[in-house]
Amino acid sequence: MKKILMMLTASVVFFAACEETQEVSKLDQEVAVDMSDFYAHTDDGDANGRGEAKCHSMHVLNKQLSENPGLYDKMYNIEKNARKFMNAKKPDGVGGGNGGGGGTDPVDPVDPVDDGLGSISIPVYVHVIYANSQENISDAQINSQMAVLNADFAKTNGDAGSIPSEFAGLAADTDVNFTLAGVTRKSSSTTAWGTNNAMKKSSQGGVDAITPETHMNMWICNIGGGILGYAQFPGGALETDGVVFSPQYCGSSDFDTQGNFFLDAPFDKGRTATHEVGHYLNLRHIWGDGRCRQDDFVADTPSSDAPNYGCPSYPTVNCKSTDMTMNYMDYTNDACMTMFSEGQKSRMRSIFAAGGPRATML
Amino acid sequence: MDFFNYLAMIMIVSCTSIVQEEVKVSSVSFESATRGGYKSITMYERKVIINTNHSAESFLLKAGDLDQFSAVISELELTSLGSYHVPNQDRHRDAAWHSNIVVYSEDSISYQSQTFDNDQAPAELQELMELFTDISIKYNRGKKLF
After folding, report:
1. Helix (H/G/I), strand (E/B), else coil: A21
2. 3-class DSSP state for residue A153?
3. How many CB pairs under 8 A join A and B?
4. CA distance B67 to A322
5. Do residues A326 and A97 touch, judged by C-beta distance below 8 A?
């Protein structure tokens, strides 16, 4: 009886979910930017290979929308703004906007249209919170991290030459750079901070963010629990805005001329920060945090159904295409990450445009 | 003798019809990963297999534990597994491990939950998660696996 009752309930939910999908489509027709594939929270639940996942997925999405409309609206608006910006930048003007350009980008000749934002310089405050002398990493190690960030975002990283020809043309110089604004250091008895943002609050033994509306804050402390680093997406609370990573993943052994950096291979080339700053600049994981049909909202990154780990061989094929395993937003080892794509560049830069969540940083 | 000697129910739902089927479960896995880490616990053929960063150990499952798992699994609606509400999304910004539960049938069909934050399983899977946690501590020399 219980099974029969649940079966009937499931059928009602299923058909209701299909109707909700149609309602979302109607709403999307009212705006110039196509937002029909937007998701805030859900995975593509193609769990059982039986073909009903799309309706289930939309049901879950709409359930969450009704539970937290404020958060959803904020994420929706940031995404809509990003798409307007990216559409305006397309040479054929898809999306109807005119961006801030129209000519060839003088910085990057591969990039067909100047977005009008110029070079974006992000000042960075670094907060080192340490429980022992090893975690109190040196200025040289912090500087090596800044060097890696600048190289990776400018496509001047020494390993960019290893990008397979299939993707080499998509590798981007993002024209985003980072300058060290200052370093704070604090001794603490806390040995593992977790991911509840305590390190960002002086009231909880951490260090408060410094002018997060104009500066990126970077906390370096032992997170523990197997987490290398984490970030906050744009649009969140200012007091917790920034990135966090553990000291042994800060900086690169390539700069360790004295042999005294505190690093832990194979995450010892500074790419944890590159990855987390990607999130801070609105990039999602390259597999879209779901299966094949769930996107990272970047057109030139191939669809994938899961993260890649280690150093994958090329080509690694999933979802009927070659994974861009060397992208910084995958989960591979530091030495095997070498590029952002042009689409990711546009997405990151869009948040600095007028109306974008990080426009105040320019 | 099969590890899970019972029949679980599944519902095949499409836009035009609903069909009910019975499935014999062969194994159940909880898998969790993040950049730099991997853990899993699998119940299969009277064994519990604990895998940490791709180093696996296998233990014989005691009868009482087997019965507990069988009871919890038999209450699952397998085709609903992928649609349970996931409460948190911290994994999208690396603040949590990416976790999921997979149930395999004897005819090699897998039923998979949506990915969820390590410590934030869908409410419908909480009982199963608690069992996984208890079993992992019991068989993993008292160490918490996740």
Report:
1. helix
2. helix
3. 120
4. 44
5. no
Distance CA A25, CA A161 (A): 43
User: Considering only CA atoms, which of A186, A19, A201, A57 is closest in space to residue B115?
Assistant: A57
Per-residue pLDDT tens for A226-242? Answer: 999 999 999 999 999 99
Element (H, E) at B49: strand B47-52
- CA gap A51, A35 in Å, rounded: 23
In degrees and rounded to multiples of 5, residue B113 shows phi and psi of -75, 165
- Cβ-based neighbour number of residue A253 at 10 Å: 17
The per-residue b/e assignment along B65-102, b for 16 or more CB within 10 angstroms, e otherwise, is bbebbbebbeebbbbbbbbbbbeebbbbbbbbbbbbbb
Does A269 contact chain B (CB < 8 Å)?
A: no
Q: Quick check: A7 contacting B, CB < 8 Å?
A: yes
Could you identify the residue written with the tokens 């040196």? A138
Check CB contact under 8 Å for B93 and A59: no
How far, in Å, CA of A305 to CA of A286, rounded? 9
Q: What does the pLDDT look like over A157-195, one tens digit per residue?
A: 999 999 999 999 999 999 999 999 999 999 999 999 999
Helix, strand, coil abundance in chain B, percent, nearest 5: 25, 40, 35
Instruction: State yes or no: is A276 an active-site residue.
Output: yes
DSSP string covering B60-98, please? EPPHHHHHHHHHHHHT-BGGGGGGSPP---GGGGTSS-E
Does A305 touch chain B if contact means CB atoms closer than 8 Å? no
ipTM > 0.90 for the complex: no
Q: A349 CA to chain B: closest CA distance, Å?
A: 19
Average pLDDT of A299-313?
Answer: 96
Asked whether the beta carbons of residue A227 and residue B95 sit closer than 8 angstroms, the reply is yes
Do the Cβ atoms of A196 and B95 come closer than 8 Å?
Answer: no
Nearest chain B Cα distance for residue A285, angstroms: 7
The full DSSP string for A235-246 is TS-GGG-SEEE-
